[in-house]
Structures are given as structure tokens and as C-alpha cells.
Design brief:
The protein has about 100 residues and is mainly alpha-helical. The protein has one domain. Helix content is about 55%, strand content about 0%. The relative contact order is 0.12.
Length: about 100
């Protein structure tokens, strides 16, 4: 059986992603966990547990998610669909050459 290693995500990179997603917010949401997880190609569970370990989330945050419905595949699909929709709504670049205006 192959050995499964934890992804090579630095504490600094994860902390930066956490701060970018939570700036100005009062709570850490499923959607934030999903978006950060997708960015690093890991699971939301991995993200939440690692953020707990780093002290960026209170201990027991993952348990709270579990008791309150978890982070289901439906949650993940919805977050990804919303993200796709928002990207599709971005305005087109003003220059077709890629040069700054």
C-alpha cells in the first residue's frame, strides 16, 4: 500500500490564504474552507484541521462543522458553481493585445 503524504503547503501560504478569505469577516464558513481547499488541491477537512493546528481557527472547528451538517459534496458543488458563475461575469479585458491601457 502506498504511503500518503500530507501536501507541501507552507504555514505562511495557508495563513495568507486564510487572511485573504476572512478579511473583514466575523466567521469562517464552509465556502471559505472549500475555496481554500480548492486553491491548494486538498480537502476542506485538511484545511480546517490545519488551521486549527496553526491556531487560526479555534480547536474543535472541524467538529462544529460535523455537528452542523458537515461539508458535503453538495456544498462543494454549490461553491464551485457559484465561483464559476462569478468568473464568467467578469468584464472582458479592454485590450486584445494584453498590453496595459
Amino acid at each position: 500500500m502506498p504511503v500518503v503524504r500530507a501536501p507541501d503547503i507552507t504555514d505562511a501560504d495557508l495563513e495568507a490564504a486564510f487572511k485573504a478569505h476572512t478579511e473583514g469577516e466575523k466567521t469562517f464558513t464552509r465556502r471559505m474552507a472549500i475555496n481554500i481547499a480548492d486553491w491548494f488541491c486538498v480537502t476542506p477537512r485538511f484545511v480546517v484541521l490545519r488551521l486549527e493546528k496553526l491556531g487560526l481557527l479555534k480547536g474543535g472547528s472541524w467538529d462544529w462543522f460535523l455537528v452542523n451538517g458537515g461539508i458535503t459534496q453538495d456544498h462543494i458543488d454549490e461553491a464551485r458553481e457559484d465561483r464559476k458563475y462569478n468568473v464568467e461575469r467578469l468584464p472582458a479585458p479592454s485590450s486584445t493585445t494584453g498590453e496595459a491601457a
